[in-house]
Amino acid sequence: MLTYEEALARVLGALPPALSEKVSVADAAGRCLLETVTSPLDLPPFDNSAMDGYAVRAADVAKASAEHPIFLRILGQIGAGEVFQGHVGVQTCVRLFTGTPLPTGADAVVMQEDTRTNAARPEQVQILDAVRPWENVRLRGEDVKAGTLLLPAGTRLGAGHLNLLAAVGLKNLPVARRPQVGVVSTGSELRLAGKPLAPGQIYESNRPMLSALLADCGTKVQSYPLVPDSLTRTRTALQRAFAECDAVITTGGASVGQLDFVKMAFAELGGSQEFWQVAIKPGKPFVFGTLAGKFLFGLPGNPVSAFVTFLLLVRPALLRWQGVQDVALPSHPGTLVEALVNRGDRRHFVRVRVDVEGRVHSAGTQASHMLHSLAAANALVEVPPESTLPAGSPVRVLRWSGT
Ligand code: AMP
Ligand code: MG
Predict the structure, then answer these.
(1) What's the CA-to-centroid distance between 263 and ligand 2, angstroms?
(2) Which residue owns the Cα nearest ligand 1 atom 16?
(3) CA-to-CA distance for 397 and 399, rounded, in angstroms?
(4) Which terminal Cβ of the chain has fewer Cβ within 10 Å, N or C?
(5) Does the beta carbon of 188 lie inside 6 Å of ligand 1?
(6) CA of residue 237 to ligand 2 center, whole Å
(7) Would you give the DSSP letter of residue 272?
(8) Which three-class secondary structure state does DSSP give residue 176?
């Protein structure tokens, strides 16, 4: 049986390089940038005002105060998107607004709140406070210099990245193509909501959960009809899913039971099983395989096991396949407020609830069929085999987005 690190290394090692496509900046949220981007422009692109007020020569108003205002002649006004066609000379100024270009000759802006006007003398303004040279001026290039690195390849684009890329005028970006991922749930006991349960049946709950987890990984998701425990039906379902998708996630049917057909059906289709079973709890019967450049992630059927193996093994794979460099789950330190016990011989990824102060509680009963503790959890904590982490222990909590 592989350790978690061995399993993850095998999965990541099997992935081909990401395929590139161009998308507009507007459509690039959540996508992974495949090439380093340098800025074609300075930001700000020109010296401009940080305030609504008056562009002045700082030297002219060095002695200004509320008691002894300095009078300046107003040469004109610059609106947004306009450039002043003139020069700010001695004892003159130009009215401007936040973001408007600083006119030539001026080297500072006095904010409107530090000025007074008189309706009888509209051509002049009283300056009530001094400014230092370049005060209230945003200098060209002080944010970004043309030709410098904006974002490295491998960045997964979020809202702030998109603003920066749009601000320098980029139109299209080379990003990774989004893999199409099929989700196939197996199990003769599974029923769809809306139909009454016959004795022995349960409602299928893995596909909605996996669709939500996949949406956070930037992939496209195709959910397939439920598959009963039959070798032929499993093979037919896998064949269709592999024809239509770049990777297929199955749930159930990957254990040691007689009715566990996923591995067998996959082999009959020509798939190569890279490994089966990982020394983690929950999630031991995880299977990984390759088929003509596509991937099988066979998750255990227990929803909790499917959830944990998805986060630990599938999520990093799907992100890395799209070129994302940092594929580890987001994590941060926390402190246990109650002991976590692992009596088993596999590393246990325990469902916990962590609060804003970093205090970590168990999310409830940990058996892999217990769904309320899955819903209550917002993090996982790893507890080593045959060990107890006492209350007060510092731990690293593993997070996922959406909670
Ligand atoms: P299996 O891995 O197929 O042996 O399933 C393990 C457990 O998970 C059994 O109790 C199944 O009934 C349950 N299970 C399997 N697939 C699902 C599913 N899609 N939704 C809810 N429970 C499931
Ligand atoms: Mg089953």
Answers:
(1) 12
(2) 301
(3) 6
(4) C
(5) no
(6) 15
(7) E
(8) strand
CA of 202 to the centre of ligand 2 (A): 11
What distance in Å separates the CA atoms of residue 210 and residue 183, rounded to the nearest whole number?
8
CB atoms within 10 A of CB 68: 9
Ligand 1 neighbour 366 (Cβ under 6 A) = no
Spatial separation of the C-alpha atoms in residues 103 and 92, rounded to whole Å: 11
Residue 154 C-alpha from the chain's centroid: 12
Distance (angstroms) between ligand 2 centre and the Cα of 264 equals 14
pLDDT digits (tens, 9 = 90+) for 138-171: 999 999 999 999 999 999 999 999 999 999 999 9
At 198, list the tokens. Answer: 């016959």
Catalogue all structural domains in the chain, each as residue range(s) with its CATH number: 4-18+177-321 (3.40.980.10), 20-44+142-176 (3.90.105.10), 48-138 (2.170.190.11), 331-398 (2.40.340.10)
Q: Is the peptide bond before 179 cis (omega within 30 degrees of 0)?
A: no
Q: Are 1 and 275 in contact (CB under 8 A)?
A: no
| Spans in the chain with pLDDT lower than 50 | 403
* CB-ligand 1 contact for 368 (6 Å cutoff): no
Q: What is the 3-state secondary structure of 67-132? A: CCCEEEEEEEECCCCCCCCCECCCCEEEEECCCCECCECCCEEEEHHHEEECCCCCCEEEECCCCC
**For residue 282, is the peptide bond before it cis, meaning its omega torsion is within 30 degrees of 0?**
yes
Question: Model confidence over 318-343: pLDDT tens digits?
Answer: 999 999 989 999 999 999 999 999 99
Beta carbon of 301 within 6 Å of any ligand 1 atom = yes
Residue 329, class by beta-carbon neighbours within 10 Å (0-12 exposed, 13-18 middle, 19+ buried)? Answer: middle
The pLDDT value recorded for residue 259 is: 86
Place of tokens 């300095």: 70
Task: Tell me if 52 CB under 6 Å of ligand 1.
Answer: no
pLDDT of res. 360: 98
